[in-house]
Design goal:
- The chain is mostly helical.
- The chain has one domain: Growth Hormone, Chain: A (Up-down Bundle).
- Helix content is 75%, strand content 0%.
- It contains 14 helices and no strands.
- Helix 4 packs antiparallel against helix 5 and helix 8 packs antiparallel against helix 12.
- The N and C termini lie far apart (47 Å).
- 43% of the residues are buried.
- About 2% of the residues have low confidence.
Length: 338
């Protein structure tokens, strides 16, 4: 669908291709989190989830620079062709390589046994009454609501950066398209590198029992507060200072987004609920994310400045930290009485 956007002959067809892209991408995070639950022992979920999300930051990191050059040299249609081709290559590699742990021949017997034994470990013990719940059943969980809303508060900033950062650098900082693409990619590159480190820290700093009690939320809340440094952007003048703040914000945000899913896994007792629970978290993120480019457009149009847009994003990040601390405390799919 991305490549098809390159041959769209009018705005209506272009919108249809973007809707098609959204439909295709909608399966990525629920499916990806199902894979994480299949492959990652409980004490490695933070690292696994953050590496998974790091991929979504590595894409813009390299894509912004590459496509900035492609669009400048060959036009916007070529940018869609190149992006679509990359997607098809990734699909082919995935289909060739991926297998469930039970079927993968490239891991040792000992490693396979470790994965199968530890992937569903819960810090509160193996509950006898674990249940596979419906979407409506999962929606009764205060913890899942807290994670989904906090995820939305973070994804709002992510969509703001994805949709408006190049325009901001061109309109306000006076960059060319190629230069804006390069500078847009830098914070994403740093975020992709730092993401795995944050996940590793969250795994190693907490015991199995602490993970099951949702104590990963404290690191998550701290990362959201750090990411809120974008509130300082209106008070700095130099482009270098702005890029430093954006890099800090995006790096902390990337870690938080990955750890949202790690926290979700920590509080899930039945692996059969992982895909459904993550779809609810993703829905919360995308509802906020879809609003970001619209709200930003109105704010910029009415104020003539991006300062208000950065303020909205920063305040939402602080709100997300509070939601995690207050709400994400109990198992998602296990009765409180157990």
């Amino acid at each position: 669908m991305t490549a098809a956007a390159g041959v769209a002959s009018n705005f209506f067809l272009l919108v249809l291709t973007r809707l098609g892209l959204g439909i295709g991408e909608s399966a990525v995070f629920p499916s990806g989190n199902g894979v994480i639950r299949e492959w990652a022992p409980a004490k490695e979920r933070g690292l696994t989830a953050t590496l998974f999300v790091a991929g979504s930051y590595a894409g813009p990191a390299f894509g912004a620079a590459l496509l900035g050059w492609v669009v400048s040299s060959y036009g916007w249609r070529a940018g869609f062709y190149v992006a679509g081709a990359v997607g098809l290559i990734c699909w082919a590699v995935w289909m060739l390589v991926y297998r469930r742990p039970e079927e993968a021949r490239w891991i040792s017997t000992a490693e396979r046994q470790k994965i199968l034994t530890e992937r569903n470990d819960g810090a509160l013990g193996a509950a006898k009454d674990r249940k596979s719940l419906s979407i409506l059943g999962l929606l009764r969980s205060q913890s899942l609501w807290g994670i989904a809303l906090a995820h939305g508060c973070g994804i709002y900033s992510q969509y703001l950066y994805l949709t408006w950062l190049p325009t901001y650098l061109i309109d306000v900082r006076g960059m060319t398209i190629m230069k804006a693409g390069f500078y847009t990619g830098l914070p994403y590159f740093a975020a992709a590198l730092i993401n795995g480190v944050l996940g590793l820290i969250s795994d190693r700093s907490l015991s199995q029992a602490a993970l099951g009690l949702g104590q990963r939320r404290y690191l998550l809340a701290a990362l959201k507060i750090v990411s809120a440094v974008i509130l300082l952007i209106p008070f700095v003048d130099s482009t270098i200072s702005v890029m430093v703040l954006l890099t800090i914000s995006l790096s902390a945000l990337a870690g938080a987004i990955g750890l949202h899913f790690a926290l979700m896994h920590d509080l899930l007792r039945n692996p059969d609920n992982a895909g459904k629970a993550s779809s609810i978290v993703v829905l919360g993120g995308n509802l906020f994310g879809a609003a970001a480019p619209i709200v930003t457009g109105y704010v910029v149009a009415n104020t003539g400045s991006y300062n208000g847009a950065f303020a909205v994003a920063g305040l939402l990040l602080i709100l997300g930290a509070g939601l995690l601390l207050l709400m994400a405390r109990k198992p998602i799919d296990q009765p409180a009485s157990t």
